[in-house]
Write a structure and sequence with these properties.
Layout (H helix, E strand, L loop, with lengths): L4 H21 L3 E2 H7 L4 H13 L3 E6 L2 E6 L5 H10 L2 H12 L3 E2 H8 L3 H13 L3 E6 L2 E6 L3 H11 L1 H20 L1
Antiparallel strand pairs: 1-3, 2-3, 4-6, 5-6
Helix pairs in contact: 1-3, 4-8, 5-7, 6-7, 8-9
Protein name: HTH arsR-type domain-containing protein
GO molecular function, one term: DNA-binding transcription factor activity
């Protein structure tokens, strides 16, 4: 017996619904992660993402060479920027380190994160452009400070990246408390 039209629509919508649910649970997820986390081929994933965008169920934002996906109209622009950074290992580590150690220099950040100064410089430029941190020059050294509300970062980490929150919470709790009382 051939499937009815509504059964065909359900079958067609099933990967899309799963994709939408994944994006709702992981806002800021980028294309490569979606490809890894779904059973969809690249073309199928692109198609379903395009349909979800056309239906105003999701939106995509390009940052730092990655296209990030969010549920439509659920996050402010600052929250989108923070979530975009939290999905990427190196920029996330740099941002959280700057919260933990305001005034850190590129050299210190490179050593703490375990990457090169050039890589840190590249990511810091993007974090500055995104309005998440700012640099103060002191002689030849630049010192980096957070520019986004620590409560927003804490809330997004705790809600959408709970394993990261557990890892960083003890380290950052005192820092966020100090920043909130200033």
């Amino acid at each position: 017996m051939a499937p009815t039209e509504s059964e065909n629509e359900e079958a067609t919508d099933s990967p899309r619904e799963s994709l939408l649910e994944y994006i709702q649970d992981h806002p800021g997820v980028y294309f490569s992660d979606l490809l890894r986390e779904t059973d969809l081929a690249r073309g199928q994933l692109s198609y379903h993402l395009r349909v979800l965008q056309e239906d105003d169920q999701i939106l995509s934002v390009s940052r730092g060479g990655h296209k990030h996906f969010f549920p439509f109209n659920e996050f402010s622009q600052p929250a989108q920027v923070v979530l975009s950074v939290l999905t990427l290992d190196t920029p996330r580590e740099i941002l959280l380190l700057i919260y933990e150690e305001p005034g850190a220099t590129r050299g210190h950040i490179a050593g703490a994160v375990g990457t090169t100064r050039q890589n840190v410089a590249w990511h810091l430029d993007r974090l500055v452009d995104a309005g998440l941190v700012h640099a103060d020059k002191d002689g030849r050294a630049y010192h980096y400070y957070p520019d986004v509300d620590p409560e927003l970062v804490r809330r997004l980490l705790e809600t959408y990246h709970p394993s990261l929150w557990r890892t960083w919470s003890e380290r950052l709790a005192d820092t966020f408390d100090r920043m909130g009382t200033n």
